[in-house]
Write a structure and sequence with these properties.
alpha/beta; two-stranded antiparallel ribbon; 14 helices; 19% strand; disordered C terminus
C-alpha cells in the first residue's frame, strides 16, 4: 500500500497534490473501469508532479534494513539505486482485505448536476477497487438499499475487478435505506481484519449507526465513511414556495422558502455534528464529499485514513485485543 508521509503531507493538501480532473468529464466516460483508471492515473500524476515526490511517499512493500534481519531479504537492486539497505516484504505481509459498502438506495439517485450521487459513488467505489487491486490488496463489495443487493467476497484473481464493476453498475432500487443490515453482515461475514469503506449519503439515524460501527471496530476492522452529498444538499436553496417529493417514499409536501432553508440547515448541522461525534468516539474517519469535488481527493482520504488507523492500532493494540475472531494491472 502506498502511503503519504504524515509530516510532509500536513504541509500540502490533497488539492495541492492531485492533478485535478473535472468530475463531470469523468462521468461522461461510459466505461466504469476506464473512469476508475482515469482517476487513479491522475492521482499518480499529481504525486509525481508534487514537491512531496521522492520524500513523502513510501512503498510498504519495502522496509529499511535493521540489525538482525535475514540478509537473504535484501534488495540489492534497490541498494544500487539508493545506496541504502531495504528488505523486501513478502506479499502476505502487505496484502490487505478491503470491503466497499455502497449505498444504492433511491436517495442516492438524486442529483442537481449532470450526474447523480450514485454516479459519483459508483465511480468512487470503482476507483478504490481499481487502486487497491493495483496494490495487490483483496477487494470485496456489498451494495444495499433497504436490504443487501450484492455481496462479493474479497478476492484477487483474474476477472474479479470486472465482477465488482458489474455489480456496481446495477440501477438504484428499493424504497428506503437500512444502513444497519450491511454493516452487521460485513462484521459477521468477514473474519480477517481489514478496511471497511462505507460510501453513502448517510441519511439514517445516528444511534443505530453508532452500534454497528462499534461492532465493526471491535472486530478489529479499520473503518472510514465517505458521506457523498450533492452540492444542493450542502447548500440548500429554494427559489419559491414549492411542492416537493420524497425520492424514496414518494410522499409530497409543501415547503416555504423563508423557513425551509433555516430549518434544513439547523437539522443538517445537528445531524452532521452527531455523525462526527460518533465517528470520533470510535476512531472512525468521516469525510463529507460534495459530488462537485475531484475524485482523486478521496484517494488521499483513503490513504490518510489507513495510515492513521494502522498506526493507532499499533500503538495501543486495543482494537486487536478486542477482536473476536493496496502491482500488477487488474483485469
Amino acid at each position: 500500500m502506498v502511503l503519504p508521509n504524515r509530516n510532509s503531507a500536513s504541509k500540502a493538501s490533497a488539492s495541492d497534490l492531485a492533478a485535478k480532473i473535472d468530475p463531470g468529464a469523468v462521468m461522461r466516460i461510459k466505461n466504469l473501469q476506464l473512469r476508475a483508471k482515469t482517476v487513479v492515473e491522475g492521482f499518480f500524476n499529481g504525486l509525481h508532479r508534487s514537491p512531496l515526490h521522492g520524500s513523502s511517499v513510501e512503498f510498504s512493500e519495502y522496509r529499511p534494513y535493521t540489525i538482525g534481519d535475514d540478509l537473504r531479504g535484501l534488495d540489492w537492486k534497490r541498494y544500487a539505486r539508493s545506496d541504502r539497505y531495504y528488505i523486501k516484504k513478502f506479499e502476505d505481509e502487505t496484502s490487505r482485505n478491503g470491503y466497499l459498502v455502497v449505498d444504492q438506495s433511491q436517495s442516492m439517485g438524486f442529483g442537481s448536476l449532470e450526474y447523480t450521487k450514485i454516479d459519483y459513488a459508483r465511480t468512487l467505489a470503482a476507483t478504490f477497487a481499481y487502486f487497491l487491486t493495483l496494490q495487490r490488496d483483496c477487494v470485496g463489495l456489498m451494495t444495499f438499499d433497504e436490504a443487501i443487493a450484492d455481496y462479493i467476497p474479497a478476492r484477487r484473481r483474474v476477472g474479479h475487478l470486472r465482477q465488482l464493476l458489474v455489480a456496481l453498475s446495477r440501477p438504484v432500487s428499493g424504497t428506503g435505506t437500512d444502513i444497519n443490515v450491511p454493516l452487521q453482515q460485513i462484521a459477521n461475514l468477514v473474519h480477517r481484519r481489514g478496511l471497511v469503506l462505507l460510501i453513502s449519503d448517510l441519511l439514517s439515524p445516528v444511534e443505530s449507526l453508532r452500534t454497528n460501527l462499534a461492532y465493526l471496530r471491535s472486530r478489529g476492522h479499520e473503518v472510514a465513511l465517505l458521506r457523498t452529498l450533492d452540492p444542493s444538499e450542502l447548500d440548500f436553496h429554494l427559489d419559491a414556495p414549492s411542492m416537493v417529493q420524497d425520492i424514496e417514499t414518494g410522499q409530497e409536501f409543501y415547503l416555504d422558502p423563508e423557513t425551509a432553508k433555516s430549518d434544513y440547515q439547523e437539522r443538517f448541522s445537528e445531524h452532521q455534528a452527531q455523525l462526527q461525534n460518533v465517528c470520533d468516539s470510535l476512531g472512525v474517519d468521516l469525510y463529507t464529499i460534495s459530488t462537485r469535488e475531484p475524485l482523486q481527493d478521496s484517494l488521499f482520504h483513503l490513504l490518510d485514513s489507513r495510515q492513521r488507523q494502522t498506526r493507532g492500532t499499533a500503538r495501543s493494540g486495543m482494537i486487536a485485543r478486542a477482536a473476536t475472531g493496496l502491482k500488477g494491472a487488474p483485469s
